[in-house]
């Protein structure tokens, strides 16, 4: 670390490190601002209905294309075995972040019905888009501590891509369920219409298990085959299998399966292969995912970043929890895994990517899911302020990570 900071001008290198953390966030703000401009009353070509359709396009087509093309090219069976801790790190980070978010939400008591919303926006970080842009900017610096530009970029992109499929599963299962609307069916509730505890409305989730039990009880005399069928239908509905098997997750499974088979990998993902035109088409579509989702999120800020119902106290707590409390927990997870021998020896880029996964601002994709669930305005406001303060926090954490690794 001393060599990295002292050589080539010392302070200049430190300034370059800080610049690496700031520039990706500046790019995010630029695209969000353009979305804000397109949704404003002066232009008005990106209304609320258009933003919802754009989010649907991202999750149904653009994100699966990005995951399939990047992950399929990066992964092999041997690498899947060597990199097994990357998805575990994402899961551990989600659990640790959610626990911290639960503590934060319990202490500050956010307005109804944003308790689970607060937990999610503290617990779910951006493990793909921002780290990918940030790492690319880092590797372009000839003085970066991870080797030549090509090696640095190739390794970093592969590690980040391998973690994205787990993030997609977490988003479409855990986050999608946690951001479900309240029993009233909407997040836009007036104080006079707040629910009374112990008196749920008809059709609320609290009554569904009772109805299910009545249906099962009425079929006690049915045949064994009928009981099995009813049980499978019940489990299918309870586990939300159809909801879990969404396009991003299907794309992840296909990419892992094809990447693990050398013949199929060469046939589809090799640049001179006969089927590479298909992969190249997906790469082009996948590159549109980040700008499209940022345009939609920027459009959600058309009413202003302070227009949400969260309030200053809840917003401040989410920012503090995500950017200050979560990263130290991530450092503990990575250092413990390293001490236990779970990480590839002498691979500093591997460790750096793991640490980055814990220090990112709230995921913009969780904001997109919030928009689909009806709380997009509050999520956009949180993302706005989290990314502003992430400019400073990310710079500090990156300097600390370089100090730990070197």
TrEMBL record:
It is a multi-pass membrane protein. Signal peptide: none annotated. One of its GO terms (cellular component) is membrane. One of its GO terms (biological process) is auxin-activated signaling pathway. The keyword Membrane applies. The keyword Hydrolase does not apply. It comes from Vitis rotundifolia (Muscadine grape). It is found in: Membrane. This is Auxin efflux carrier family protein. It comes from the Eukaryota. Keywords: Auxin signaling pathway, Membrane, Transmembrane, Transmembrane helix. The chain crosses the membrane at residues 20-40, 52-71, 83-105, 117-138, 158-176, 244-264, 276-297, 317-337, 349-370, 382-404.
């Amino acid at each position: 670390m001393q060599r990295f900071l002292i050589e080539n001008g010392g302070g200049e290198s430190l300034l370059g490190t800080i610049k690496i953390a700031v520039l990706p966030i500046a790019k995010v703000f630029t695209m969000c601002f353009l979305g804000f401009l397109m949704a404003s009353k002066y232009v008005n070509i990106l209304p609320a209905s258009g933003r919802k359709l754009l989010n649907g396009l991202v999750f149904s087509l653009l994100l699966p294309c990005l995951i399939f093309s990047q992950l399929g090219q990066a992964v092999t069976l041997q690498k899947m075995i060597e990199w097994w801790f990357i998805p575990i790190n994402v899961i551990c980070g989600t659990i640790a972040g959610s626990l911290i978010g639960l503590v934060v939400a319990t202490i500050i008591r956010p307005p109804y019905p944003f308790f689970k919303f607060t937990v999610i926006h503290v617990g779910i970080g951006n493990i793909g888009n921002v780290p990918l842009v940030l790492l690319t900017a880092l590797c372009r610096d000839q003085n970066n501590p991870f080797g030549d530009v090509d090696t640095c970029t190739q390794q970093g992109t592969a590690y980040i891509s391998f973690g994205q499929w787990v993030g997609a599963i977490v988003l479409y299962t855990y986050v999608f369920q946690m951001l479900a609307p309240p029993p009233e069916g909407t997040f836009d509730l007036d104080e006079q219409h707040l629910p009374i505890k112990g008196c749920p409305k008809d059709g609320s989730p609290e009554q569904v298990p009772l109805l299910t039990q009545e249906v099962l009880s009425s079929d006690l005399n049915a045949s064994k085959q009928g009981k099995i069928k009813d049980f499978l239908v019940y489990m299918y509905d309870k586990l939300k299998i159809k909801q879990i098997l969404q396009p991003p997750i299907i794309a992840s499974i296909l990419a892992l399966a094809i990447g693990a088979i050398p013949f199929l990998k060469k046939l589809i993902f090799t640049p001179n292969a006969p089927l590479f035109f298909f992969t190249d088409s997906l790469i082009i579509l996948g590159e549109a995912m980040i700008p499209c989702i940022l345009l939609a999120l920027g459009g959600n800020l058309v009413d202003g970043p302070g227009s949400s119902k969260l309030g200053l106290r809840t917003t401040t707590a989410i920012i503090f929890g995500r950017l200050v409390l979560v990263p130290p927990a991530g450092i503990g997870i990575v250092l413990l895994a390293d001490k236990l021998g779970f990480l590839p020896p002498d691979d500093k880029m591997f460790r750096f990517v793991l640490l980055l996964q814990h220090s990112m601002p709230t995921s913009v994709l969780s904001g997109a899911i919030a928009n689909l669930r009806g709380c997009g305005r509050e999520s956009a406001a949180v993302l706005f302020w989290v990314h502003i303060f992430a400019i400073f926090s990310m710079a500090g954490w990156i300097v600390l990570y370089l100090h730990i690794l070197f």
